[in-house]
């Protein structure tokens, strides 16, 4: 149990613009987070930037959304990218895991029902100094998703991995 405090997680949340990332250590320490924009060949650009993050933070595990899970609406490009990230992590001797959106929601909501914005709001309260002032306004149907949501998607993956075998984190 004491050893788990030293596990470092790198969560990656690819999107059409690039990707969000979060580095988490122990149960409550958010080490780094952000959004990386990628121009040109998005998959090769993302792979380069993810490799740099792996080299910088030396994570024990890389976590991604399960793009092949039932109900996943990820594009073919993103699905391919996620497979390439998993393969790259293996070549760098870093374990890679995937979690479905349903698994993430079940950690945050008892019935597993809740929006991405609701998860982001919970995370903004849980990490007020790190994420509190970055929470974008709730998206309206005619609006594109704010790129900052990629950060919350990544943090949600990291928190879910840390809490998957525990009760819901919502108070």
Quick take:
The chain is α/β, with parallel strands linked by helices and 171 residues long. The chain has 6 helices and 5 strands, in the order E-E-E-H-E-H-E-H-H-H-H.
Structural features, described:
The chain is α/β, with parallel strands linked by helices and 171 residues long. The chain has a single domain (2-163), classed as Nucleotidyltransferase, domain 5 (2-Layer Sandwich), CATH 3.30.420. 41% of the residues lie in helices and 20% in strands. The protein has a 5-stranded mixed sheet, with helices on both faces. Helix 1 runs parallel beside helix 2 (76-91), helix 3 crosses helix 6 and helix 4 (116-126) packs across helix 6.
Please give a handful of descriptors for the protein shown:
171 residues; alpha/beta; Nucleotidyltransferase, domain 5; five-stranded mixed β-sheet; 6 helices; 41% helix; disordered C terminus
The shape is globular
CATH class division: Alpha Beta
Helices and strands, in order, run as EEEHEHEHHHH
Number of helices: 6
Indicate the low-confidence ranges by residue numbers.
1-5, 165-171
The biggest beta sheet reads:
5 strands, mixed
Helix content: 40-55%
Strand order of the largest sheet: 3-2-1-4-5
Quickly count the domains: 1
- SSE-based structural type: alpha/beta
What name is given to the CATH topology? Answer: Nucleotidyltransferase, domain 5
Overall pLDDT level? 85
Rg from C-alpha positions? 15 Å
- The CATH superfamily is identified as Ribonuclease H-like superfamily/Ribonuclease H
Strand percentage: 15-25%
Q: Based on the coordinates given, report the CATH architecture.
A: 2-Layer Sandwich
First-last Cα distance: 24 Å
How many strands appear in the DSSP assignment? Answer: 5
